[in-house]
Design a protein that fits this description.
- The chain has 11 helices and 12 strands.
- By secondary structure, the chain is of the alpha/beta class.
- The strands form 4 sheets. The protein has a 5-stranded parallel β-sheet with strand order 5-6-7-8-9.
- The longest helix is centred in the C-terminal third of the chain and has 24 residues.
């Protein structure tokens, strides 16, 4: 998301503007110390290529292409008053609207044809969508399973936006590997994630940021009310997952300029997890989730030399990572992108 109001950015800006600003966001991400980033819907393989080829400075990027949503679901950006077909153009936070297993399968195959790294689906309502509620379930198990089958056929996986306990359990039943958000889960969904050897990627910081700052970025009252619901329950959801022994990855879901707060996520997680567990979630666990454990996630021979040098001890205070001046060296793939020692 290059701007804060993702529901409307395609209404206000041409694709060229969004693409250019996306590269600035990529640069900001690397300068915060993140050497590999997984896009959770919106970025196509062109963004990955331009970073790989070194035309812009940014992290190694894993793209999901267009997310897949049901009509009226979290990915349907039409306002309730808009009766026209969903927008089908542009760059950025635009998805495929697909209903029924056959349409979902086709959308997944189209994404795969466009060389995505993983498939993103929407299994529940969301905070930023205009015409659904947070705790709803979206997509049937059969619809989600169609996406999972297509992803598995080419050796990749499905990640799913899901908040409610029921939505998470249904996604897991369909074979989804990675649950994004999961704020409203209870013991049953936490156990399902654990039993399936799947992953939970909490995104606590985005709710704090949007709750505090959303209004000035033009985010509507209904959306902010939904954000507050997610914010109030995020710690409880993470606690259930942690107690169940789930594999907990690390993400942020921050929008626009709020992405400056990415590393605040670590401090919020540390209310439940130890500092070392928080650091592992952003390195070793994420590497396993990305299926890149042989290349990233730990400092070992024959892996990519992705290293940061920090002035301070994150095991005593994760807050040291929030000040970029404390990041003295940022190295990605053996190349130094920052050095202030």
């Amino acid at each position: 998301a290059v701007t804060e109001n993702i529901t409307d950015q395609h209404r206000y800006y041409p694709p060229s503007y969004i693409a250019a600003r996306a590269m600035q966001r990529a640069h900001e991400c690397l300068m915060q110390g993140f050497t590999t980033a997984r896009d959770a819907g919106g970025a196509d393989y062109g963004f990955r290529m331009v970073l790989e080829e070194g035309h812009f400075v940014g992290p190694r990027l894993l793209v999901s292409g267009r997310y897949i949503s049901q009509t009226g679901g979290h990915g349907d950006k039409r306002r309730r008053s808009e009766w026209s077909d969903p927008i089908d153009c542009c760059v950025g936070m635009i998805g495929f609207i697909a209903d029924g297993p056959d349409e979902v399968r086709r959308a997944a195959r189209e994404n795969i044809r466009r060389d995505v790294d993983q498939i993103k689906i929407m299994a529940s309502g969301g905070a930023m969508s205009p015409s659904d509620e947070l705790d709803t379930t979206q997509y049937t198990v059969a619809e989600m399973r169609a996406a999972v089958e297509e992803a598995q056929a080419v050796g990749t996986y499905v990640l799913s936006h899901a908040y409610s306990d029921t939505a998470v359990r249904r996604a897991i039943e369909a074979g989804v590997r990675s649950i994004e958000h999961g704020n409203l889960i209870r013991e049953t969904a936490a156990k399902a994630i654990k039993d399936a050897d799947a992953f939970l990627v909490p995104t606590m910081v985005t709710y704090e940021a949007i709750y505090r700052e959303g209004k000035r970025y033009g985010i509507g009252d209904h959306q902010i009310a939904k954000i507050d619901l997610a914010r109030q329950q995020s710690l409880q959801g993470l606690t259930y997952a942690y107690k169940a022994g789930c594999k907990i990855g690390s993400g942020s879901d921050l929008l626009g300029d709020m992405a400056s707060q990415r590393t605040v996520e670590f401090e919020l997680k540390a209310q439940v997890m130890t500092p070392m567990e928080v650091l592992l979630s952003a390195t070793k666990v994420n590497a396993e989730l990305f299926r890149m454990s042989d290349k990233i996630g730990s400092v070992e021979p024959n892996k990519y030399a992705d290293l940061i040098v920090v002035d301070g001890n994150p095991l005593k205070s994760l807050r040291v990572l929030q000040n970029q001046d404390n990041l003295k060296v940022i190295m990605k793939g053996g190349r130094v992108f920052k050095q202030t020692l």
